[in-house]
Amino acid sequence: NTTVPVPATLMLLGLGLVGVRLSKRH
User: Fold this and answer.
1) pLDDT per position as a tens digit, 1-21
2) Which residues contact 4 (CB under 8 A, 6 or more apart)?
3) Is the pLDDT of residue 23 over 80?
4) Phi, psi (5° rounding) for residue 21?
5) Per-residue pLDDT at 19
6) HEC sequence for 1-26
7) Whole-number Å distance between alpha carbons of 16 and 13
8) What's CA 9's distance to the chain center, in Å?
C-alpha cells in the first residue's frame, strides 16, 4: 500500500488554490 504523506497533499491543494486565485484575477 502506498500512502501519500499529508504535507504533500496539503502542498498540492495549496498550489491548486493559488492557481485558481491567479486565474480569477485575470
Assistant:
1) 677 788 989 999 999 999 999
2) none
3) yes
4) -60, -45
5) 93
6) CCCCCHHHHHHHHHHHHHHHHHHHHC
7) 5
8) 7
The residue ranking higher by pLDDT, 26 or 17, is 17
Q: If you search the block for the grid coordinates 497533499, which residue do you land on?
A: 9
Q: Which single residue is written with the C-alpha cell 486565474?
A: 23
Dihedral sign of CA atoms 12, 18, 24, 26 in order: negative
**Rounded to an integer, what distance in angstroms lies between the CA atom of residue 18 and that of residue 23?**
9
Helix (H, G, I), strand (E, B) or coil at 25: helix
